[in-house]
Amino acid sequence: MKGDARPIGVFDSGMGGLTVLRALTVRLPHERFVYLGDTARLPYGTKSADTVKAYALQATRLLLAEGVKMVVVACNTASAVALKALAEALSPVPVIGVIEPGARASIAATRNNSIAVIATEGTVKGGAYARAIAALRGDVRIVQQPCQVFVALAEEGWADTPATLAAAEYYLGPLFAGPSPPDTLVLGCTHFPVLTGAIQEIVGSAVALVDSAETTADAVAEALAGNGLASQGDDSAPTRFFATDSPERFARVGEIFLGRPIDVATVELVDLRSL
User: Fold this and answer.
1) Annotated active-site residue in 18, 189, 207, 229
2) 20 membership: H or E segment, kind and range
3) Does domain 8-97+214-269 bear CATH number 3.40.50.1860?
4) pTM to 2 decimal places
C-alpha cells in the first residue's frame, strides 16, 4: 500500500459517530479506520465541559496507542468543548471535529440567512455551532433547540415511529411555525441522521437538512491531502472497533448507524480509566 497506510482514528461517546465512519468509508475507500465508542459513559451531552474534556483525552490516547495518523472527533459535544484541548494534546497528529464542517455546509445551504441547529443539551449550551456559523457569516439568524430524547430514539432504531414523530413535532414545531422560519436545519448530533425521515416530515421538504457526517468526510479528505497523509493503495483493511461497555450491544445497535452488520467478534472491550 502506497502513501501513508496508518489508520484514521474515529472517536465518539457511543454509536452515533458510526454515521461519520460510514460517510468516511464511502468518501475514503482506501483508508483504514479504528473506531472507539465510549459506550460505558454516554451520553456526553448532559455532562460538564471538564468531564467531557477528560473523557475525550482518555479516548484519544487509546487511538494514539493504535498508531493513528489523524483523529476524527465524531461527537458534537466533544467537538464543541474539547477540540482545542485535543488539538494541543495530540499535536502533531491532526484533529478534525464535526462542528466547523457542519457550520460551513449550513452557510452554503441557507437561502434566507436563517439557520436552526438541533443538538444535545451540552452542544446547545456550549454554543459552538452558533459561534462557528456567526464567524463565517455574521448576519445569519440562528436558533437552537436541544433534542436529547432523539438520542435514545435513534439508538432504539425508532426512525419513523409515532413516538419519534411526536418528539420531532414537540421539538421542531415551534422552531418552524413562525412567519419566517429557518430554511436550513443542522443535525448537530451524530445520532440524528438516523431520524432524518421523521425530522423532514415535520419541518417540510423545503428545509435543507445538514448532516455533519458528510461534510466531515469532505474535511478529512482535504486534511489528508493537505498534510500528505492520504493512502494511495487499492485495498483497505477491515475497521477495528473498540467499546468501553457491552460489545454485544455495540454490534447490535451500531448496525443501525453504520448501515451494515458489525461482527461482535471484531469489537474489543477496553477500559479508558487508566489512560
Assistant:
1) 189
2) helix 18-27
3) yes
4) 0.91
